[in-house]
Amino acid sequence: TAIWGFRYLYSRKMVDLYHSIPAKRSRLFFVIYLNGLLIWLIPLLAAMGIMLILIFANMVSLGALSYFGSVAGMAFRLLGVAIVCYLTLYHFLLVAVMLSGNAFNAMFSAAVLGTAVAAIYGMIQMLSSAFFDTFVSSPISWDQILWASPLCCPFFLMNDFADTGAGAFLIAAAKSNYDATYLLRIGNLLV
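The structure corresponding to this sequence follows.
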C-alpha cells in the first residue's frame, strides 16, 4: 500500500494533479498514509472479530467458556504483533518510496536497505577472517544481526509468537469440529 498510495510521485501529470488540490501537502500525506493503514487494518479487525465470535460460540457449545479470556488475550496480543509488523514494513517501504524516482527503484531501494545490515556484517566477518590471522568470530550471531533488518524483523517477531503455541490454539479454537478434550488439553498447556 505504500507504493500504491504514493504512486503519484512517479508521474509528472499525477504530481501536478495532486499538488493542484487546495490542501496542504502535509494533509495530503496524512490522508494517503492513513488510507494505507486503514485499508489493511479494517479487514484485519473484521476477521479478528469474526474469529472471536466463532471461538466464543465453539467454547459455549463445548462448555469450555472459562478459557475464552485467555484465548481473547492471545488474539489481541497477536493483533498487536501483526500491527507492529505491518507498521515496520509500511514505514520502511515509505522511506524507500520517498527516496526513489519510480516503482522499480523503490523496490530495489527496499531490498538494498533491508539487507544492508546483514551484508555489512557478513562482509566484515568474511574480510576479517581472511586477512587477520588472530581473528576470532564475533560474539554477535547471525540471528541477532537479522533482527536488525527491517525486512526480516517482522517475520521473526511473528515466528516467535507462533512458537508459543498461541497460533495453533487460536486455529484449533476457531474450528467447530474439534472435540472438547483436544481443545481443553491444548488450553491446559497454555494456561
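The mean pLDDT is 77.
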